[in-house]
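Input (structure):
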């Protein structure tokens, strides 16, 4: 009889663990995200592009959306005063910096304080090296983030996501991000995160390829694969452009 009781308890414990595992997997998979357009093409007239995010999360959850580029090491020149002149006095390196970081949330508080998302959280993940003292790192990290924001490569929009009830009882999430003209060709990640009590409860990401097409793609191929031909072409273009400009200005002065 005791053996049967013990086996019964084991069955109930295993069943409970199975329910917990299944519940966790359902929660992780219950976030969906779609990005439009699904590919960004950089042509000769590319001036930036807007992407639209559409997704869904379970009812009762909040949302955070991130657009991130591959992390890389940034090299910056540190300015300093030498006598009456300002000049480069050393090199700084910033490791762990994504090439692009745009973040938005359904509630403003999700990107403030000790939140794991937002520019403040990103600053804590950056590592500074080179000619910089420990007491200066916070200042230079802040300046680095300001530089990236001025280039429109970093940005945060608390409360920028819209949420509404969906037909299936879930929550529909929509939002928009602007990709600047200086974004580099690469594969970027667009992630939608379901948040509960300030922590990520589920996440779904979609790849967003950004690639060059047309004449810019041709120039990039020549530059990396046919350097000599690229150099000759650059000289020819410069000469032809010079002739055209000279003709136009000369013609304009004759009237």
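Output (sequence):
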């Amino acid at each position: 009889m005791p053996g049967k009781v013990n086996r019964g308890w084991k069955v109930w414990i295993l069943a409970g663990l199975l329910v917990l595992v299944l519940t966790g997997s359902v929660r992780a998979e219950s976030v969906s995200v779609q990005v439009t357009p699904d590919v960004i093409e950089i042509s000769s007239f590319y001036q930036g592009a807007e992407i639209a995010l559409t997704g869904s999360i379970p009812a009762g959850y909040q949302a955070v959306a991130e657009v991130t580029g591959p992390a890389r090491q940034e090299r910056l020149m540190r300015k300093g005063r030498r006598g009456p002149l300002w000049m480069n006095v050393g090199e700084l390196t910033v490791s762990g910096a994504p090439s692009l970081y745009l973040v938005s949330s359904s509630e403003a508080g999700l990107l403030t304080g000790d939140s794991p998302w937002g520019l403040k959280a990103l600053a804590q993940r950056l590592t500074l090296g080179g000619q910089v003292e420990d007491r200066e790192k916070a200042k230079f990290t802040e300046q680095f983030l300001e530089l990236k924001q001025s280039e429109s490569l970093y940005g945060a929009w608390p409360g920028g996501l819209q949420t509404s009830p969906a037909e299936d009882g879930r929550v529909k999430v929509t939002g928009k991000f602007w990709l600047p003209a200086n974004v580099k060709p690469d594969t970027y990640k667009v992630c939608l995160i379901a948040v509960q009590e300030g922590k990520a409860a589920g996440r779904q990401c979609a790849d967003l390829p950004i690639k060059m097409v047309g004449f810019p793609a041709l120039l990039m191929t020549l530059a990396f694969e046919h350097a000599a031909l690229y150099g000759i072409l650059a000289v020819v273009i410069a000469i032809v452009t010079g002739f055209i400009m000279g003709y136009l200005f000369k013609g304009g002065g004759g009237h």
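Notes: Residues 213-255 form one domain. The mean pLDDT is 83.
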